[in-house]
Write a structure and sequence with these properties.
- It contains 4 helices and 12 strands.
- It is an alpha/beta fold.
- Strands 1-2-3-4-5-6-8-10-11-12 form a 10-stranded parallel β-sheet, covered by helices on one side. It has a two-stranded parallel sheet with strand order 7-9.
- It is elongated, with a radius of gyration of 19 Å.
């Protein structure tokens, strides 16, 4: 199928031994992590969207091989239970690793919040969705921050404390929190994010709405910027 562009099934466990280079393939999911080898990635060099399905039996080696997907724009990783840490050694996070990646989603993984420091180094990341992705109770963002991030989605029943400054997310436009039942407040530093236009809360603690309203009032009083706050409980 030389013209195939999209290949999406529930779970791809095998691709055989074919050595054909699929130059037209742009979207493939859900690829089992054991198949994420250098050999495969060099045979799909123009993939722009990739979904990876993890498991219990595969470690983080796949991350080292992602360096061969220079055209990748969107990456989703789900149910990768052996991925307990994102590898940092040997990966050029701050320079040439995944230079075109704009959208990243982790779903049902077991990462520490501290690993988000590496994710923040991705040079062109604009959308980050963390859906039951981290199991720690505290996230302290680093000074390097997320320089290009515009949309951040967090769903976590574990997160209790979030420490961040506004300049850690200098161009953030939308913050969406889902089912963050233990988190009591949004970092006050979000008042200083001049680009912030929307805070959306879904099934969160009442104190989070109070925190969002405070940020809304402070931005209006201090900067003359109005933001939209939406909350849904049911």
């Amino acid at each position: 199928m030389p013209l195939l562009r999209n290949f999406c099934v529930g779970r791809i466990l095998s691709l055989g031994t074919c050595s054909v280079v699929h130059k037209t393939l742009e979207n493939i999911s859900w690829l089992h992590s054991k198949l994420c080898t250098q050999d495969l990635f060099t045979r799909i060099p123009n993939v722009k969207k990739l979904g990876i399905e993890g498991g219990y039996d595969e470690g983080p080696d796949c991350f080292y091989n992602l360096v061969h997907l220079g055209q990748l724009e969107a990456l989703s990783i789900r149910r990768w239970y052996r991925l307990e840490h994102i590898p940092c050694s040997g990966i050029p996070w701050a320079t040439s690793f995944l230079p075109n990646l704009k959208k990243l989603k982790f779903f049902d993984t077991r990462l520490p919040w501290s690993d988000m420091k590496l994710i923040g180094m991705l040079p062109n990341l604009e959308v980050l969705k963390l859906i039951d992705a981290c199991q720690d109770r505290e996230w302290e963002t680093s000074e390097e921050g997320f320089r290009r991030l515009k949309w951040l989605v967090i769903q976590s029943r574990y997160l209790e404390y979030w420490n961040a400054e506004g300049d850690h997310f200098p161009v953030l436009e939308c913050l969406e929190l889902r089912k963050c039942t233990e988190l009591q407040e949004i970092p006050s530093g979000f008042v200083d994010i001049t680009t912030l236009a929307l805070i959306e809360l879904n099934y969160c603690h009442d104190s989070l709405l109070t925190s969002a309203k405070w940020i809304q009032d402070e931005k209006l009083n201090n900067y003359g910027n109005s933001i939209l706050v939406r909350s849904r409980k049911h």
